[in-house]
Amino acid sequence: MITKIKLGIIKTGTKCLNVIYAIFKLLPVRNKVTMLSRQSNVPSDEFRMIKKGINLRDKRVKVVFLCHTLDGGVHASLSDKVKYGFHMLTQMFHIATSKVAILDSYCIVISLLKHKKELKVIQMWHSMGTMKKFGYTALDTKEGSKSELAYAMKMHRNYDYIFASAESYKDHLAKGFNCDAEKILTMPLPRLDLLNSDKYGKKVRERIYREYPKFKEKPLMLYCPTFRKEEEEFQKALKELTDAVDHGNYNFVVKLHPLSQASVEEPAVGADEFSSFEMLFAADYVISDYSCIVYEAAVRRIPLYFYNFDMELYADGRGLALDYEQEVPGPVSDDAKEIIAAIETKEYDMDALKRFADKYVNPVGHATKDIVDFVFTLINE
pTM (2 decimals)? Predict the structure, then answer.
């Protein structure tokens, strides 16, 4: 429960931030697009792709990246909170002087403060889909925010437009962001262009094979589990899956969530030099659970297998956004040996995989261009 003191601090802090922001809002608006993220301290490939598209269209439009994580959130150290506070001042300056702001995650300054009418805010989110509840649908769950805190912080407010990868994803986003469905546009993320690019895929594969020549010698199983706050049971499940693999006939790569503290032990390979997304271009099979990587793997038409060893616990703690066993396009089991046995049969319903991909990701071939076109309609309003 959030105490009245904490709520009072948030209310007072909001007033102070709005006073500071009012000074920044006296500055003139420029032909500028500000891109903000709490996912990483460096711009994502998607942010860079959008920037490149904007610059190719009109170099006079300034594009600013503001990427800064706050590990631990409200539980972060005092020094990290102070650093992030100064970062918020930088955010306020650029947002106040921009025509468009693009986010891929929650941004305190965007949601909490009162903005100029000229500013248009796009929430493109950071995944092509989600099996898990998030935002307002996950309030007061084990891994979600507290209701009092979410409403006090005006979580996910002030978005003018929200991008969805497909029509079927809109309802879930509307509930998660607690917004009108009219704000949601079918606009797949730029990574769709990469997933569909043979040239990009070949380039990434060559980099992977240079670092790990053995990956060319036999089929590669890629395990991409979702993040769990409590990882004791996960570590046991990971060992069971590793032990179940026939390492003489398969490569086995495990890509943990960036926040995970679990360890990858031989003969499994962590392949730390490459992201989960990059490893998709070398994978023959993908094993996951409730991670959004499954949508990307489906677009690549990589057979999917679902190792849900903690299904009941996870569904009760976080909640799932779909009818899991009815929707997922592949074998489901809480038994590691069954998952590996299913892969070894080499039998798979590729039609079901295609239906899943087409349902949740609109199969366009020019996702980045569509976003850049839309940004320019906002700039030119």
Answer: 0.92
